[in-house]
Amino acid sequence: MEKLLENQVALVTGASSGIGYGVAQALANAGAAVVLNYHTHAESAKKLADEIEKAGGAALAVGADVTDRDQVESMFDACRARFGTVDIVVANSGLQRDSAFAEMTLEDWQTVLATNLTGQFLTAQSAVKEFRRRGPRPVSKALGKLICMSSVHEVIPWARRVNYAASKGGVLMFMKSLAQEVAPERIRVNSIAPGAIRTRINKDAWESKPEQDRLLQLIPYGRVGNPDDIGKAAVWLASDESDYVVGTTLFVDGGMTLYPEFADNG
Ligand code: NAD
After folding, report:
1. Distance, CA of 90 to CA of 215 (rounded, Å)
2. 164 CA to middle of ligand 1, Å?
3. How far is the CA of 116 from the centre of ligand 1 (A)?
4. Closest ligand 1 atom, CA of 164?
5. What is the mean pLDDT of residues 6-27?
6. What confidence tier does 109 reach under pLDDT thresholds 50, 70, 90?
7. Mean pLDDT value across residues 155-183
8. Is 229 touching ligand 1 by the criterion CB < 6 Å?
9. Which domains does the chain carry?
10. pTM for this entry
11. Which of 73, 74, 89, 93 to mutate to test the pocket of ligand 1 (most atoms within 8 A of CB)?
């Protein structure tokens, strides 16, 4: 059976854990050769690359800090050296540095903005340049596909995380403005906005039963998400099945953005 992403090359940043790991697995299962970027936990990215290759796929683990332009460019060089080009880029790297607003340090603010927003800028810029350099390929209707990993917090305000919410609000207009600019070249730029997905970034919210029960009150669909839920969405958004989807955010959140507190109130 033909796979949706056969003969395409995908790059996923922050692929050594959580959502990035799940997205890389899903893209590989859909037939793409995958470049797994890691910043920390190199061993985990390398292990996944080995597993993909043993299963008959193609994968390469590449270390890079997405806040550093030279390292991002070297990551794309490594991608070109091994696979010739890249067709799909998932700008997934992100982190949180939570604190009450008055206590938030400038470093906490800058680290989150640098990783979650500037990291997307640098990754997307290298991606657009590579799509243009390489030109059209018969493997996809689009010249290239860029997926920004956003969050429900691109629209839901989040007290004690103003840095994180500001970064994801920034991703929203970054994605839309870039999509508007490059769509005429048939480059498709979209975002995925996950709700609560079980990864280390939010383990405090699901590790204990009382915390998980509190979290579930925010999720009408009644379960916490898994990286694979995001992986499946990424495969669709990267494939020609979504060829007319341009400049939009796909919320994969079990209904979190339906504001369930209003179901029997307000
Ligand atoms: P995670 O901590 O497992 O993954 C984040 C990844 O980003 C890690 O692999 C980390 O090494 C990488 N990273 C951090 N700084 C980096 C840098 N400077 N350069 C390169 N990589 C860097 O957490 P996750 O939940 O998998 O988060 C992935 C993305 O999903 C993030 O953008 C996050 O904001 C977003 N997200 C997560 C959730 C959730 O519920 N887990 C919800 C909404 C959005």
Report:
1. 27
2. 12
3. 9
4. 34
5. 98
6. very high
7. 99
8. no
9. 9-199+224-257 (3.40.50.720)
10. 0.98
11. 93
